[in-house]
Design a protein that fits this description.
Elements lengths: L23 E5 L2 H17 L6 H10 L5 H12 L5 E5 L5 H4 L15 H12 L3 E3 L11 E3 L18 E4 L11 E8 L5 E6 L7 H7 L4 E3 L19 H10 L7 E2 L6 E2 L6 E3 L4 H17 L1 E4 L5 E5 L3 E5 L12 E8 L6 H4 L10
Parallel strand pairs: 1-2
Antiparallel strand pairs: 2-13, 3-15, 4-15, 5-14, 6-13, 6-15, 7-12, 7-14, 8-11, 9-10
């Protein structure tokens, strides 16, 4: 765990970042730093209409540099490190009473109590890259919500609860997937764990590595992009044609890309398969599945914790839990971040064949 040292009075040196000892890089804010970040987000919530409004999307990366210096230093240095699976910032204040009840559905999750926290997550994201959303996911919202939905307990999407959310690269089916997935925990009373794992390089033999670097695998969109999981008014959007094409006729891709000693990972435990009839690819994928299963570890995000998962180096999931449906359920805000928005230029230029990005 990486945490900047504090004095006996709880004040941290302004530019200190310690040596990592866990698979994620971590910073705990001082009360003064947390209050400053929250105040900045609150001012944004008063000035701007919504987090995904055009004006705030343009201004957020600049406003983010008004965040506390030690926080900005941590994010900049951790982003350039090659080792962490996630960047974690703890200590953001959440007034549970003002937050209100956990919504029963993501459609009603843009609540007054959670509004400043959505802006806070956007400001954090602005220190890492450009945010984006999917026209085919939660009606195209840029800041989305993760919470249990009654009737969806055993689905393969984040609204599930009793069903463990299997490990995956976020939106692995798309070449325009996020570089980071940001999670801000608004409430987690039962300490439900996020699961993480990196590429188990030390346990992969040379031939299996060779195969995983070859375009011999099919990855389909997960169910969150289906029309049925969006509002009725959104279901006629042309972007769903790209999702249908990706589901029906996925193009072969490689599971591993980049440098052999430090590859990027692209896989979804529930939606990946070998190309038809490719037994060697099937064996390689089976080996990878077993090794990732064996190397999963847990990261618990308490109320106010923020995590940015490196979607290139790690897969993530979530342990199963018993939903309450009493207004006290686990609730997170989620965001997608890219280091190069122009990489997906076709998507936001309106080409429906490029899988629904906006």
């Amino acid at each position: 765990m990486t945490e900047s040292p504090t004095t006996h009075h709880g004040a941290a040196p302004p530019d200190s970042v310690a040596t990592p000892v866990r698979p994620w890089s971590e910073l705990r804010l001082t009360p003064a730093e947390a209050a400053a970040a929250a105040a900045l987000a609150a001012r944004c919530a008063q000035r701007y209409d919504e987090t995904d409004g055009p004006e705030f999307l343009l201004d957020a990366p600049v406003i983010a540099h008004e965040m506390p210096r030690r926080l900005r230093t941590f994010m900049a240095r951790a982003r350039l490190d090659a080792w962490p699976h996630a960047l974690v910032v703890r200590g953001n204040p959440v007034d549970d009473a003002s937050l209100g009840s956990t919504p029963v559905h993501w459609r009603t999750a843009r609540t007054p109590g959670s509004r400043p926290l959505s802006f806070l997550l956007m400001l954090y994201a602005g220190l890492l890259g450009d945010v984006f959303g999917w026209a085919t996911q939660q009606d195209g919202r840029v800041v989305t919500d993760v919470l249990p939905i009654k009737g969806g307990e055993h689905t393969l999407v984040s609204s599930s609860s009793r069903q463990e959310l299997g490990w995956h690269t976020e939106d692995a089916f798309s070449p325009y997937r996020a570089d980071y997935v940001g999670l801000l925990s608004l409430r987690n009373p039962d300490g439900v764990a996020t699961t993480l794992a990196g590429v188990p390089l030390d346990d992969l033999d040379e031939r299996t590595l060779d195969v995983l670097f070859q375009e011999r695998f099919l990855i389909r969109p997960d169910d969150s992009h289906l029309q049925v999981n969006n509002s009725t008014a959104q279901q006629g959007r042309v972007e769903f044609e790209g999702i249908a094409q990706a589901a029906d006729r996925p193009e072969p891709v490689a599971i591993l890309t980049g440098h052999r000693a430090a590859p990027h990972l692209r896989v979804d435990g529930d939606f990946s398969a070998p190309a038809e009839g490719d037994e060697e690819a099937a064996a390689a994928l089976g080996t990878l599945r077993k090794l990732i299963d064996a190397s999963l570890y847990e990261l618990v995000l308490d109320q106010g914790d923020v995590a940015f998962i490196d979607n290139r180096r790690a897969v993530h999931g979530r342990r199963a839990f018993q939903p309450r449906y009493d207004g006290r359920d686990r609730w997170l805000k989620r965001i997608n971040i890219t280091r190069d928005l122009h990489r997906s230029r076709k998507a936001w230029a309106g080409d429906s064949r490029v899988l629904g990005q906006r």
